[in-house]
Amino acid sequence: MKGTTRLVEVRTKILKENDVVARALRQQFRERGVCVVSLVSSPGAGKTMLLEETLRRLREKYRVAALVGDLATENDARRLARAEVPVRQIVTGTVCHLEASMVQTALADWATGELDFLFIENVGNLVCPASYDLGEELRLVLFSVAEGEDKPLKYPTIFHTADVAVITKMDLAQAVEFDLPAAVQNIQSVRPGMETLEVSAKTGLGMDQWIERLERQRRDARHV
Amino acid sequence: MKGTTRLVEVRTKILKENDVVARALRQQFRERGVCVVSLVSSPGAGKTMLLEETLRRLREKYRVAALVGDLATENDARRLARAEVPVRQIVTGTVCHLEASMVQTALADWATGELDFLFIENVGNLVCPASYDLGEELRLVLFSVAEGEDKPLKYPTIFHTADVAVITKMDLAQAVEFDLPAAVQNIQSVRPGMETLEVSAKTGLGMDQWIERLERQRRDARHV
User: What is the complex's ipTM, to 2 decimals?
Assistant: First the structure.
């Protein structure tokens, strides 16, 4: 157990270092007026698809860009590039989450002040990203109807560190016998009062509300 | 980056300690003649459902039991107990994977020598469990058709450390326009020659082959 204690100590130090970088990023984003939104979920919950559709819809009125994290491949960056907005991939190798320093490095030569929205798609993982602040203004936690209603109960920490819960792939709800009231109740039992959205990026269900939510976030925070 | 280097050092030490415990477990399982099979996947890929159906089918001929890992709740242990076999839950708190020492502790007062099969369901995570040997004889990596065909490419390490890939929720394949040949090709490109099964625990598709595969594993390893 000695090794574990030491690991906890070192991990605490890393988290503190991460928080320092995240705070600097948040300050910078605020000064530059860019609204930064991050997405966390299991692998395959539909982050990239929701993001692609979001970028398509926003780009008509706003200057938008995205960063995407994955262990391997640049597939997601390629998918998102179809929305014809600037996209960068962060390849983490074996690291199970994004860290603020990775975001800082990826943005080093970007004029983020020229953006209205920047999206950050985390590595697919419902556990580890919870511990790492990325300097974002709004953090979404997604889970798909195919994953089941119990995800909030089984992964409470990630729900505690996110601002909005998004239930995805609502078009499959009937096929998987998804119990929406039970899912919402599970979210509320873990995090009373948590804002929840239901979407299907495939059929467009809930997308208007989601886009309005983003616009409101930007407007309220900036008084624009 | 200094903290990160130190983290890597401490992590390497923990992994070495884990390997020592895992080796002792594997030796013990072999001596006692119990076939130990572990399951890893994303949250919501269907580990518990596949396991529940597997336990139901095996218990008629074999002595079976299961350990299930989760950050929080004993829901999975309760679900698996419906199969009327001995089940224990390991609650990991914030730890994103099972470790060999957790398995050792959970089994301390179990007469595993009286079992034919022991199943270990890992925490839902496609990244972190890859690094931790649990002393199992066979490791499955599962992903559901709802997660998409690209999971092997994006999470290669977990496919490298597993023995069999299982594509789950095949009953939803049409609804999500799942491209099975592409998925199989992605598995093979990451891990040439990897054994792959397709199942639906809901409809029973592929379950007979899966049960036969388990029986063969036990027979071949033990010459019974």
Answer: 0.90
DSSP-assigned letter for residue B134? -
| Element of type H or E holding B36 | strand B35-41
Q: Identify the contact set of chain A against chain B, taking CB-CB distances under 8 A.
A: 3-4, 6-7, 10-11, 13-14, 17, 42-45, 70-73, 75, 94, 96, 123-128, 131, 143-144, 146-148, 150-151, 153-157, 169, 172, 175-176
Name every residue whose Cβ is closer than 8 Å to that of residue B131 and which is 6 or more positions away in sequence. A94, B15, B97, B157, B161
Task: Give dist(CA A90, CA A98) in Å, integer.
Answer: 8
Predicted model pTM: 0.93
3-state helix, strand, coil in chain B (%, to 5): 50, 20, 35
CA–chain centroid gap for A56, Å, is 17
Average pLDDT rounded to a whole number, residues B24-36: 96
Find the Cα–Cα–Cα–Cα dihedral B211, B216, B221, B224, rounded to 10°.
Answer: 110
Interface test with A, best of B92, B154, B178, B202 (most A CBs within 10 A): B154
Q: Is B68 left (phi over 0), alpha (psi -120 to 50) or beta?
A: beta
The 8-class DSSP code of residue A169 comes to: -
